[in-house]
From TrEMBL:
GO cellular component term of the entry, any: membrane
Top-level taxonomic group: Bacteria
Protein name as catalogued: Membrane associated serine protease, rhomboid family
Subcellular location(s) of the protein: Membrane
Domain Peptidase S54 rhomboid: 120-253
Length: 284
């Protein structure tokens, strides 16, 4: 607890009797005292309590001793329920899309072209933040906004970030593995691999928590049909993201509580190692 000098009590040595003042704001007189520490608290420093008021310092000290509320899968429930990570990803994708119009060479410098992946491996991730057009961007960001906040809350931020990025990487690695050599010059962009990974993870999490997963399974089925029937869509990226996202989603959802943190780290590391080996095989 922070320490502030209090006004000298009436009749005490070293100070004349006077009205009580707020220890945080000595220029303010206050006859309201904190129910915990009994110090005066001015209106700015008062916080309503079940009985009377508490000062801000006592409230802060009490909050430190309160264990954070967590979801059934270990995600920390923050005071604000804003999906900060999801909003940040959407913001990055939007900024990258706008920048690609201002800097015409930007997209070509960061999209995934299998023939360049060996010398420029960053393309395996950066391509997931670029999009070919407004419709492509809006479709992926809408899907991300539908499923992202739920997973961000259920899993917690760091596991959600890992799920998104590793699913995106899984989609890119699948492009390297499953694209015919004669098509190695065709570029691939988009967050679809990551979004498909989130789709698969949502289905697993819903089943794990006893909720109805039929709606998301229908969405996945519809998108799979679209993937294989509409020209110009990278079915490889969608398939890779779906598989990797489903695997990580199952890991995060079914790890025992006592092994949740360490197991998640080891699982993500193992998946990255596997994708690294598959990348080396594809580029060999």
């Amino acid at each position: 607890m922070s320490s502030y000098p209090s006004a000298p009590p009436p009749g005490s040595a070293g100070g004349a009797a006077g009205p009580p003042v707020c220890p945080r704001h000595p220029d303010r007189v206050s006859y309201v005292t904190c129910q915990r520490c009994s110090r005066p608290a001015c209106p700015e420093c008062q916080r309503p309590a079940a009985v009377g008021v508490h000062c801000v310092d006592c409230v802060r000290e009490a909050n430190r001793s309160v264990r954070p509320t967590r979801t059934v899968l270990g995600g920390r429930v923050a005071a604000s329920d804003r999906p900060v990570v999801t909003m940040t990803i959407i913001g990055i994708c939007l900024a990258a899309f706008l920048a690609s119009y201002l800097l015409p060479g930007l997209r070509a410098a960061f999209w995934l072209r299998p023939s360049l992946a060996g010398d420029e491996p960053w393309r395996l991730i950066t391509s997931a933040f670029l999009h070919a057009g407004w419709l492509h961007l809006l479709a992926n960001m809408y899907a991300l906004w539908i499923v992202g906040p739920f997973l961000e809350q259920m899993l917690g931020r760091w596991r959600y970030i890992a799920l998104y990025l590793v699913s995106a990487l899984g989609g890119s690695v699948a492009v390297l593995l499953l694209t015919a050599p004669e098509n190695y010059q065709i570029p691939t962009v988009g967050a679809s691999g990551a979004v498909f990974g989130l789709f698969a993870a949502v289905a697993v999490v819903l089943r794990r928590t006893g909720r109805d997963a039929r709606q998301i399974l229908v969405v996945i089925a519809i998108n799979v049909v679209i993937t294989f029937t509409v020209a110009g869509i990278s079915w490889q990226a969608h398939l890779g993201g779906l598989v990797v996202g489903g695997a990580l989603g199952a890991l995060f959802a079914y790890l025992p509580k006592e092994r949740r943190s360490v197991g998640a780290v080891l699982g993500v590391a193992a998946m990255l190692a596997l994708l690294g080996v598959l990348t080396a095989v594809a580029l060999a």
